[in-house]
Design a protein that fits this description.
Length: about 425
């Protein structure tokens, strides 16, 4: 083997100053797997893992001895966490600051706009912290429709903010469903299921879309006009029975949002009325049938997969916080949290361990993202009700509150933590919980 192929290994050993021969062998083994085995046909690399390690043994031992000597000349490094620990004499290295966890989805980008409507999204491109959930604010004018399409990497969830929407969907078992939605309703379409969204009636509609993958983009979906306009007219003629000349005249572009005749009641029949209807409901009346919890300073309405079985990757929550009140300190052990502000204004404060706390304001049309397991609270700092739509990337809702945690321990133990009296600790049981 040419000596040059050891250069990456030697450089890494010099940089890291390994003090154990075993560590060096681990690095050599890694480089064999990464570079040698994957290039076994190279004229300079006809070797096995055993021969590679044997050939490198002298260099390995030499570098181990050198690194041990050099290491003795360097200051000792803390063996604990990079941030040190309580009582440590080692100065902790500063942690990276919290990245921003608020984004203005309504005003952050231009998005899409046409005669039929608009769409503005918050994906990792616009909102990097939100790796697990993406959102779209979409508006359709009367007669407009979001064309037939599907999503290959994400399921679609929606909440109707204003107006009415009609949807159609086909499922892999060949069943279909046409449903009408009004303000406060939600839908859920599993990943890969073909569907369509249409403004219903003579008034515009506005709805919030949520996707269970932050890398999803609404502008990169699989649309029927995009596919057909880029497929051979002859193939399409054989596939549909329509003349090739019809397909040859179609625009070579995606429609995305189109405008057609005004959609009105009642629901029309399908082209093939004999297709069976789906037995799985894609619609849930969230505002009417969500699990309600009332508190002194507001309320929540919860819809998980227990209430809405097809919603198998997300949990949805509607929350109202009255002026001057807070949503108590808590965290979610099983899910990230994504919020959309329907109205009002407030603060989101997040705790991320090692003394890292960051508070950011938000208001109508903004979204927030809180990573799984991070402590947080919400505060209404305005003069009107703070109304939120919240998504969790888990089908089951879980929460742990600071108050419940404290009250689940003996009073003396809590008192010893904070230097309070046992009576003070015992009084915690009388404090309000939830939203207050």
């Amino acid at each position: 083997m040419k000596a040059c192929h050891f250069k990456p290994v030697i450089n890494l050993l010099n940089i890291r100053c390994f003090t154990k021969t075993y560590d060096v062998y681990l690095v050599l083994d890694f480089f064999y797997t990464k570079f040698v085995s994957q290039n076994h046909n190279h004229q300079y690399m006809p070797t096995s893992r055993r021969n590679f390690l044997s050939a490198a043994s002298l260099s390995t031992l030499g570098m181990a001895a050198i690194s041990s000597t050099v290491g003795s000349l360097l200051p000792n490094k803390a063996a604990a966490s990079p941030t040190g620990h309580p009582g440590s004499t080692t100065a902790p290295r500063p942690l990276e600051e919290f990245e921003d966890f608020i984004y203005d989805i309504e005003n952050g980008t231009k998005g899409y706009a046409s005669e039929g409507g608009t769409a503005k999204e918050a994906t990792v491109e616009e909102f990097p912290v939100s790796q697990s959930i993406a959102g779209v604010s979409m508006r359709l004018n009367p007669g407009a429709f979001r064309e037939l399409h599907w999503h290959s990497i994400a399921a679609e969830w929606a909440y109707i903010l204003e107006g009415q929407v009609r949807t159609t969907i086909i499922t892999p078992d060949g069943t279909t469903s046409t449903d009408d939605f009004e303000k406060g309703d939600i839908w859920y379409f599993p990943k890969g299921h073909g569907h369509m969204l249409q403004c219903l009636g003579d008034k515009p509609c506005h709805f919030l879309l949520g996707f269970d993958n932050g890398h999803f983009s609404e502008f990169g979906t699989f649309s029927i006009t995009d596919w057909i306009s880029h497929t051979s007219p002859d193939i399409l003629a054989r596939n549909t029975g329509l003349p090739a000349s019809f397909f040859a005249k179609l625009p070579k572009k995606e429609l995305y949002i189109g405008v057609g005749k005004l959609a009105t009641e009642p629901r029309p029949k399908n082209i093939n009325p004999s297709l069976p209807f789906s037995t799985s409901s894609h619609r849930f009346r969230m505002e009417k049938d969500g699990i309600m919890q009332e508190f002194k300073g507001g309320y929540t309405k919860l819809v998980s997969s227990l209430e809405f079985p097809i919603q198998s990757t997300l949990t949805a929550l509607r929350m109202d916080i009255e002026p001057g009140n807070i949503r108590e300190l808590h965290w979610h052990p099983n899910a990230d949290e994504w919020q959309y502000v329907m109205s009002g204004s407030g603060n989101v404060s997040i705790f991320g361990s090692h003394g890292r706390v960051k508070t950011m304001p938000y208001s109508k049309g903004m979204v927030a993202f809180i990573k799984q397991g991070y402590g947080h609270y919400l505060e209404n700092t305005g003069t009107e009700t703070l109304k939120l739509i919240v998504l969790f990337n888990s089908p089951i809702y879980q929460e742990l509150s600071l108050n419940d945690w404290l009250n689940s321990n003996p009073p003396q133990l809590v008192a010893d933590h904070f230097g309070m009296t046992p009576d003070q600790a015992s009084s915690l049981v009388n404090h309000r919980q939830g939203i207050y």
